[in-house]
Design brief:
- By secondary structure, the chain is mainly α.
- It has helices spanning 14-34, 40-47, 51-57, 61-83, 91-105, 110-113, 121-140, 150-167, 174-185, 205-212.
- Helix 4 (61-83) packs antiparallel against helix 5 (91-105) and helix 5 (91-105) runs parallel beside helix 8.
- It starts with 13 loop residues before the first helix and ends with a helix.
């Protein structure tokens, strides 16, 4: 359940619902091109509605952003549920890949996606819980080395976020190569020169929360 509500709980009329969807789609387009500094006037223009119509659906620009973040989090939770159906241990990699695709499309919202929004907190919590479960399954199936932790996956998302934010306009798929390299490094190695354990301690959950403040 989202903490932030932009509309009443009453079902919207068809035309109102269509306007709302057009505004959200226009906001995604405008924010992708110009970042979150873009004005609501431009969003209304792209959506083909008046500014007054936009404000009737979303009382503030932040309310609009929160709605987008909420949709992103619901999408992440749904993808996580789907990934848990993979019994071969590949669910974690599939989910991280889907998350990376979402991040590059909605790069402007990333500063608020992971913690700095009250939109759909339960969906974000579910996503994080399932990440830990998927990691454990991947390790049990021998796809990921045993000393990788859930906070390591959190840091991977941060790394992909940085790549998406800086390269989306020039090389929107650059993050995928980085992801391939990282997962190659997380494969179990039982012998040879690369069988050494990791020497640097993983971040704790408390440290991750402090960083995200």
């Amino acid at each position: 359940m989202a903490i932030h509500k932009t509309t009443s709980d009453k079902p919207l009329r068809k035309d109102a619902a269509e306007n709302r969807r057009r505004i959200l789609d226009a906001a995604a387009q405008v924010f992708f091109a110009s970042g979150l500094d873009a004005g609501v006037e431009e969003i209304a223009r792209v959506a083909g509605v008046g500014v007054g119509t936009l404000y009737r659906r979303f009382p503030s620009k932040q309310a609009l952003i929160d709605e987008m973040v909420g949709e992103m989090r619901l999408g992440l939770a749904a993808a996580a549920r789907e990934a848990t159906g993979r019994e071969d241990g590949s669910g974690l990699e599939a989910l991280v890949l889907e998350t990376g695709k979402l991040q590059v499309v909605q790069w402007a919202c990333l500063p608020q996606l992971w913690d700095h929004s009250n939109a759909e907190p339960e969906a974000l919590a579910e996503f994080r819980t399932r990440i830990a479960e998927l990691l454990e399954t991947a390790q049990q199936c021998g796809r990921i080395r045993s000393d990788i932790t859930p906070t390591d996956i959190s840091m991977l998302f941060w790394a992909l976020r940085g790549i998406s934010e800086t390269s989306h306009s020039v090389a929107p798929d650059a993050w995928q190569r980085h992801l391939e390299i990282v997962f190659a490094g997380m494969r179990p190695v039982t012998d040879g020169p690369f069988a050494e354990p990791l020497h640097t301690k993983a971040l704790s959950a408390a440290q991750v929360r402090k960083i995200n403040r």
